[in-house]
Write a structure and sequence with these properties.
305 residues, two-stranded antiparallel ribbon
Length: 305
């Protein structure tokens, strides 16, 4: 039981770090541009498909990941320049409708290019074997790589936002867009950079998770809901909040899907447990979100105030 608990905690940590990659881009776009981008999950899907396609064509997972990062960042910046830039001054309802249309367009575009059938991508040979962390605990090497990459990106993002001139411009744009413009910051190019950077983070999440799940059309919608929950819990516009919220959601979601059916199985029949357990596990994170917002309506680490 202890080994299972440690393994599931690591799984939750890994899932939370991937959620952080999605939520970080989302909270930058939402916090700085004040824009609700429902198509954020579509960038995650595009990154996963690019990774799978380039990996299969080149035979190199590394080339696939790098190509997906570059391709999705360019795709995101083109979207920002050609369409989304026109939505900044519009109300949130217009942004929701326009980006929802983008979801449908991206889904159909991906279906036209790669077809409707899911793509299964195997982990690289070097990462296909488990590693013994402690005696008796073997953990998949690819999942360990995801954890390492997530931590490195989180540290790099903190340094970028908190310690560099670009980060200072980003924080200035988030705090007061007009004042930042008056001080000489090119807000339009800053927004394009932030959007492309957020798209690359989405692609990284899609690339890292693609060997663990089927790459398929519409895969971005379900995880987008969790990314929004992370942003709301952590505090809109807060990278630190996105990090803590992602780890919290990832760990709670993974552990509840393991522990709740086990606990119910002690008192209920197997058929009732199999039906009730997953349903209760799915509800837990939303109960957690409600509890956090009741205690701190602005989220755990609001960017302002």
């Amino acid at each position: 039981m202890n080994i299972l608990l440690i393994e599931q905690t690591l799984n939750g940590f890994q899932f939370g770090l991937m959620l952080f990659l999605l939520a970080a881009g989302l909270t930058l776009v939402f916090g700085i541009m004040d824009m609700i981008n429902l198509a954020h999950g579509s960038l995650y899907m595009v990154g996963a498909f690019l990774t799978a396609a380039v990996t299969q064509a080149s035979g190199s997972y590394t080339v696939g990941v790098l190509s997906a990062l570059a391709g999705t960042a360019v795709f995101g910046m083109l979207l920002e320049v050609s369409l989304l830039r026109r939505l900044y001054r519009r109300d949130h309802l217009s942004q929701v409708l326009a980006t929802f249309a983008l979801i449908l367009i991206c889904n159909e575009g991906v279906r036209m290019i790669w077809g409707a059938s899911p793509i299964k991508l195997n982990a690289p040979e070097a990462l296909s074997r488990p590693i013994e962390l402690v005696p008796g605990l073997f953990y998949p090497a690819h999942r360990l790589l995801i954890i390492v990459v997530g931590i490195v990106v989180a540290i790099g993002l903190y340094i970028l936002v908190a310690k560099t001139r670009v980060g200072m411009w980003v924080r200035a744009g988030a705090s007061n867009r007009e004042m930042a413009t008056a001080m000489g910051v090119n807000i339009q190019w800053l927004f394009t950079f932030v959007f492309g950077f957020g798209a690359a983070l989405c692609a990284l999440a899609g690339s890292m998770l693609s060997p663990l799940m089927a790459v398929q059309v519409g895969m971005g919608e379900s995880i987008l809901i969790l990314a929004f929950v992370v942003v709301v819990i952590g505090g809109i516009g807060s990278i630190r909040g996105a990090f803590v919220g992602a780890l919290l959601i990832g760990t709670v979601d993974t552990l509840s899907r393991t522990l709740i059916p086990t606990l119910l199985g002690q008192f209920l029949s197997p058929s009732t447990t199999s039906a009730l357990g997953p349903a209760l596990a799915s509800i837990i994170i939303y109960v957690l979100m409600a509890a956090v917002l009741f205690w701190k309506p602005q989220g755990l680490f609001p960017a302002r105030g």
